[in-house]
Amino acid sequence: MSKDLILSIQPLGFQWQTQDPFIFCVHHDDHFPKGNEKMGPDASLEGRNIGQDFTVKDGWRMYHGDKIPGFPYHPHAGFETVTICVKGFIDHSDSLGATGRFGKGDVQWMTAGKGVQHSEMFPLLNRDKDNPLELFQIWLNLPRAAKKVEAHFKMLWSEDIPVVKETNDQGKVTEINVICGNFRKAGAPSPTPDSWAADPLNELAIWTIKLEAGASLKLPKSQNEVNRALYFYRGSNLKVENQRISDYHEVRLISDAEVALEAENEDCYVLLLQGKAIDEPVAQYGPFVGNYQGDIREIMLEYQRTEFGGWPWSSKDPVHSREKGRFARHADGREEVK
Predict the structure, then answer these.
(1) Mean of the pLDDT values across residues 20-36?
(2) What is the Cα–Cα distance from 61 to 59, expressed in whole angstroms?
(3) For 64-77, how does the pLDDT look when each residue is reduced to its tens digit (9 = 90+)?
(4) What is the CA radius of gyration of the chain?
């Protein structure tokens, strides 16, 4: 039976392989040290390739940041980003004039559409203790009909994301964070309106799952056969349909059948991505996604001409004050404070 339900198993690298309608997924797990007065690492940056620091050294990376870790302003067009901040904080700013700080389980859903610039910086707020950061960034494609919609973002605050807890006969608990889609009777907050996820017939699902040692779970079946993948990123001895899976592996599954998961002797952490394929040609050049190479040329010319509205901030890597809490200020002036 497991052979019929499991389509493939493959190791995960830095950039995880995805299936249509997803384009890209990456897991950042950095054990940053105490922060300095500028909210950068209170540690030497010697020996790092500043501006392109993707090598884990002392448990963390600077990415494209030079003083504060993160990703200074850069463009996107033709798809969406879904950023799940499990630990730590992310300071967002964009070319629409929107900004914010989110973390502790919050999710930002950003439609790049016809084009936007944004920055994603990781301020190290704690000066007296370490600053762990863990996040997933998922790129979800847009169908051709939505590739030129206006850019905007939506916050899915952790307080609004359903957490389903299921207990097996041994009293062991599985927790499912329903970021997109439905799990049993629990429905996630609505995604952005132009998203492929906005149509329930596309059966988009993004769930983070924690099985404590000894816990088990039956993944519910989809209504129709769609692409479904599990990303087992932490733990050991996860069993999928009684087949033992090593950590940091992807498991692609048949979706229209129940699949049994079990954590044997250690807590296991899994990301699930599921959705109906858009089934259109995909052309990609870095942060630009179209259907054909001609689309990419058109996006590049538009970016050269307009810079997607320009960059309204005084620095390439803006961050908020250390004392600032979780909030989002949208381009229309609307503000959310948590």
Answers:
(1) 98
(2) 7
(3) 999 999 999 999 99
(4) 20
Query: Prior bond to 21 cis, omega within 30?
Result: yes
pLDDT digits (tens, 9 = 90+) for 95-112: 999 999 999 999 999 999
Residue 14: C-alpha distances to residues 137, 248, 280, 288 (Å): 12, 10, 26, 20
pLDDT of residue 3: 53
Task: Give the residue among 194, 176, 69 at the shortest CA–CA distance from 119.
Answer: 69
- Residue 137 C-alpha from the chain's centroid: 3
pLDDT value at residue 171:
96
Spatial separation of the C-alpha atoms in residues 143 and 123, rounded to whole Å: 34
Three-state SS string over the chain comes to CHHHHEEEEEECCCEECCCCCEEEEEEEEEEECCECCCCCECCCCCCCCCCCECCCECCECCECCCCCCEEEEEEEECEEEEEEEEECEEEEEECCCCEEEEECCCEEEEECCCCEEEEEECCCCCCCCCEEEEEEEEEEECCHHHCCCCCEEEEECHHHCCEEEEECCCCCEEEEEEEECEECCEECCCCCCCCHHHCHHHCCEEEEEEECCCCEEEECCCCCCCEEEEEEEECCCEEECCEEECCCEEEEECCCCCEEEEECCCCEEEEEEEECCCCCCCEEECCEEECCHHHHHHHHHHHHHHHHHCCCCCCCCCCCCCCCCCEEECCCCCEEEC
- φ/ψ of 90, rounded to 5, equals -125, 130
